[in-house]
Write a structure and sequence with these properties.
- The longest helix is centred in the first third of the chain and has 14 residues.
- The chain is 39% helix and 17% strand.
- α2 packs across α3.
- The protein has 7 helices and 4 strands, in the order ααβαβαααββα.
- By secondary structure, it is an alpha/beta fold.
């Protein structure tokens, strides 16, 4: 799903790793551990992460767990920062089969901020036509785009904003 975004961000001298969320029915904490391992093994002097939807929660959790000083930025696209309505509905029925639903339905987990010890710049991009995730009133949005939750990662206007964020200090 993130391949078009990856292509738009390719530049000479920039190393990109598209790390798609493995698949549904995966323990999210195992996914966080795997992302942490990948970041620790990276020889990059500076790491920026781009997280879409639940991938943003995975990225935030991995950043907090790893505490790597090389992580500089997190760009959050339509992030899950509050309980997801459909997850609350389906958690009792499918929570054991789809472990992500348990996390997505939990207010405390979804609102987990980045560690204040980390010097990470976080930028958020929100879709104006968002019907999947809920935005808390106190959540800071840096860019609000004409997009939907899914279409946001396919839109050149969003890609340009991400490029600007990656290129800024």
């Amino acid at each position: 799903m993130l391949y078009p975004l990856e292509r738009s961000l390719r530049k000479p001298g920039r190393t990109l790793v598209r790390w798609d969320y493995p698949h549904v029915f995966t323990d999210p904490y195992q996914t966080i551990d795997t992302l942490c391992e990948a970041m620790v093994k990276s020889s990059a002097p500076s790491i920026s992460l781009i997280g879409h939807s639940f991938g943003d929660w995975i990225a935030r959790s991995a950043i907090n767990q790893s505490q790597l000083k090389s992580i500089r930025k997190l760009i959050s696209i339509c992030p899950t920062v509050a309980p997801v309505p459909f997850a609350k509905v389906f958690k009792p029925i499918m929570g054991k089969l789809v472990p992500e639903l348990v996390v997505m339905a939990d207010k405390e987990l979804m609102s987990t901020p980045l560690s204040e010890k980390m010097q990470i710049k976080r930028s958020s991009i929100w879709a104006k036509v968002e019907v999947i995730v809920t935005r808390p009133q106190d959540f800071k949005v840096d860019h609000e785009m004409w997009a939907s939750h899914i279409s946001s990662v396919f839109q050149p206007s969003v890609w340009r904003v991400i490029e600007e964020e990656l290129s800024s200090n």
